[in-house]
Specification:
heterodimer, A: about 350 residues, alpha+beta, OB fold (Dihydrolipoamide Acetyltransferase, E2P), 2 domains, 5-stranded antiparallel beta sheet, about 35% strand, B: about 350 residues, 17 helices
């Protein structure tokens, strides 16, 4: 059983500070939805508003069409998985998992049955009598998920639950979370600052910055067709080239950058004379000369070998270097550090967006 | 005829029990030196340096001497002296160390059976039980007052309000105990402010005897040891992760269940520590029961006080004081066992 979640012009203020500004969106039942943004962007505030720990200063949160104002966190059909998991240290694994049922007055035998069921779902069968402190990080993670699922919520809220795990486990848990979500079929709302997590797991992503939802879309849309400079620079690596638009039409725009006039797509219709930024992904750049308005020449600052790929850093116009990624099997000659090198891209892979704030490094 | 142990301990003019008291210092010092010397053996880390290696011989000796001094003169010796005193008969100075100075349990037995007429000593035993029961009630009362306050200060209140509250709690303790007790007495007296207000409002016709019915005693004792309960509780609740409370709430727990299942189990060592201290201090308090107790109220410490300073019967006073200590410790241990708290946890 899943429920849709709707935010209707939700604004949350803490004194003078506005944490979330007029957030409106609709999350479908059974969807895996992520809020992605840097720390302090308001994503956790949204989560706490949905779970009932915060009331919106303005606007409405609806779960399954029902207005949630005045309904406390303990009465909502949601369950929250905390960043630090917040497992109860003085209870056993089984007691942790069935705490929500105990509170609801479910009989002991039934609770034990449910605990066994959930323990096998999270691949920890027979470990119910252990103390939480006896579990590894990944196991604790799964117990937290089971504890939240035990109360059969319609919406599961996850607040960066993987951030405390090491890299390998994190990647493994991504798959596992996705698998659990598909098995139980309820709505997952996932908060993260890690775009890899958001892209791999989510059906749709809302990218947030400074309390504002900048873009909502599936992973491909957010990555390939960002609508703001912030989204373009925050989701994945991107090389920005800022300047004034020299030429623009529906098919594309040319930006006068410090590396000369460069061309890219123009989906938002920037106009001649506007300040704009051309974005080119590191994997879209290749070594060698191309079309004149899609070639950049600069000094090689550094070459970093990373196994499956090699990153080449060229001197950028400002502080940020231009990054170029070369796949392991591409047969090109990697330039030496310090030499001049030209790199080119397919103008269809360049993207011109109106000037805006970039994600800070 | 009182049986004596003196065939075992007596030596002309110099009982062995007193000799023991003078031997103990050397024993304590020897224990400390041994601890310092063999510390290294118990370290799990093989590179661990011994006590003398870390501090050098001179400094090491100074440290040991200081700690030994503190342990001896402030902890071990005074009590030890009192213990051995309690096992002696009451004697005039001239008889001390003489043939009458024997080891005896007569002082302890006198608590149960009157030495004068062989009757059961109901007065003293009654006062003993009364003291422990009232102290236990005061402890429960204090916990009931302090727990909500401590929870509010540690988890719910804003920083400013908590500071104000803290100040309001601490400042009254600058007032000395006697002034506090007497002012409470004035308030609660039969012609005191509270009774006059009650009668003025027509709630009662005759003044209520607050002092005679020991209300004053409860109020005075609770108030005197409020902070002693407050701070261990506050410390315990304060270190609880807020997410734990929210997690319980998110899983559907109403507020009282959150306290029962999450906060109180977590704060149990702090609760035990606060309760133990309030109970011990109440049972051992002197001023509040004397000033605020009713005319029929006999607090056990008053009896001890009278033995020391009215009857000049130090041995019996010492014996009674140790009985009180033993009673308190036994009760506290029982409670710790009942609530499954280990002694180590309470002093964390």
């Amino acid at each position: 059983m899943s429920a849709d979640v709707e935010l209707d012009r939700v604004t949350v203020r803490f004194g003078q500070f506005t944490a979330v500004k007029e957030a409106s969106l609709k999350i479908a039942g059974g969807e895996f939805f992520s809020f992605l943004g840097p720390s302090g962007c308001g994503k956790t505030t949204i989560l706490r508003t949905v779970s009932g720990f915060l009331d919106p200063s303005e606007g409405v949160v609806r779960i399954a069409g029902q207005d949630m104002i005045g309904i406390g966190a303990n009465k909502r059909p949601t369950a929250l998985i905390f960043q630090n998991l917040a497992l109860f240290p003085l209870m056993t694994v089984a007691e942790n998992i069935t705490y929500g049922l105990r509170v609801r007055g479910v009989s002991r035998s039934e609770r034990m049955k449910k605990a066994d069921e959930l323990l096998s779902l999270i691949a920890l069968p027979g470990q119910g009598n252990k103390l939480v402190s006896e579990l590894s990080g990944g196991q604790k993670q799964r117990v937290a998920i089971a504890r939240a699922l035990a109360v059969e919520p319609k919406v599961l809220l996850l607040d960066e639950p993987l951030s405390a795990l090491d890299l390998k486990l994190r990647q493994h848990m991504r798959n596992e979370l996705r698998a659990i979500q598909q098995r139980v079929g309820i709505t997952f709302i996932y908060i993260t600052h890690d775009q890899g997590e958001a892209l791999t797991m989510s059906d749709r992503i809302a990218v947030m910055n400074n309390g504002v939802i900048e873009q909502v879309g599936d992973g491909k849309a957010v990555y390939d067709m960002p609508t703001t400079s912030f989204v373009a620079s925050f989701v994945g690596e991107n090389n920005p080239f800022a300047g004034r638009v020299a030429k623009a039409d529906k098919s594309g725009a040319v930006v006068e950058t410090p590396f000369g006039a460069l061309r890219g797509r123009n989906p938002l219709g920037v106009k001649k004379g506007d300040k704009a930024i051309l974005f080119v992904r590191p994997e879209a750049l290749r070594l060698g000369k191309g079309e004149k308005d899609a070639t950049i020449t600069s000094t090689v600052l550094n070459v970093a070998f990373e196994g499956n790929a090699t990153h080449i850093f060229l001197k950028g116009a400002e502080k940020k270097d231009i990054t170029l990624t070369v796949g392991r099997l591409e047969s090109v000659k990697i330039p030496e550090q310090g030499v001049e090198a030209s790199v080119a891209y397919d103008p269809d892979l360049g993207l011109v967006l109106p000037e805006g704030r970039l994600a800070s490094e | 005829m009182i049986p004596t142990w003196d065939w075992c301990f007596r030596k002309e003019g110099w009982p062995v029990s007193r000799l023991l008291v003078y031997l103990i210092p050397f024993l304590v010092i020897a224990v400390f030196v041994a601890m310092a010397r063999y510390e290294r053996r118990f370290a799990h880390d093989p590179t661990h340096k011994g006590f003398f290696e870390r501090n050098g011989t001179t400094l090491g000796i100074v440290f040991i001497a200081l700690v030994a001094f503190w342990t001896l003169f402030l902890v071990v010796l005074p009590y030890l002296y009192m213990v051995q005193e309690s096992f002696h008969p009451k004697l005039v100075a001239a008889d001390r160390g003489g043939p009458k100075d024997i080891l005896t349990t007569e002082q302890y037995r006198s608590f149960f059976v009157q030495p004068t007429d062989g009757e059961i000593n109901t007065t003293h035993m009654g006062a003993f039980i009364f003291t422990l029961v009232i102290s236990a009630i005061v402890t429960v009362l204090n916990f009931a007052i302090c727990y909500p306050l401590a929870y509010y200060m540690a988890q719910a209140g804003s920083v400013q309000k908590v500071r104000l509250l803290m100040l309001a709690l601490i400042v009254p303790y600058w007032v000395n105990e006697i002034l506090r007790a007497f002012s409470l007495r004035l308030l609660l007296a039969s012609k005191g402010l509270i009774n006059q207000a009650l009668m003025g409002l027509g709630l009662t016709d005759a003044p209520i005897d607050f002092l005679g019915s020991n209300v004053g005693l409860y109020v005075g004792l609770s108030y005197a040891y409020l902070l002693v309960m407050m701070f261990p509780l506050y410390n315990a609740v304060e270190s609880l992760d807020k997410n734990q409370i929210e997690a319980a709430r998110d899983l559907g727990a109403p507020w009282w269940r959150i306290h029962k299942d999450v906060v109180i189990p977590y704060a149990k060592p702090g609760i035990a520590s606060g309760c133990t201290m309030v109970f011990m201090l109440s049972a051992g308090s002197l001023a509040a029961p004397q000033f605020l107790g009713g005319p029929k109220t006999l607090w056990f410490t008053s009896i001890v006080y009278d033995f020391f300073f009215q009857a000049f019967n130090w041995p019996r006073g010492a014996a009674y004081a140790f009985l009180l200590l033993a009673g308190c410790i036994a009760l506290v241990m029982l409670m710790l066992r009942l609530f499954k708290v280990s002694l180590g946890e309470t002093i964390k």
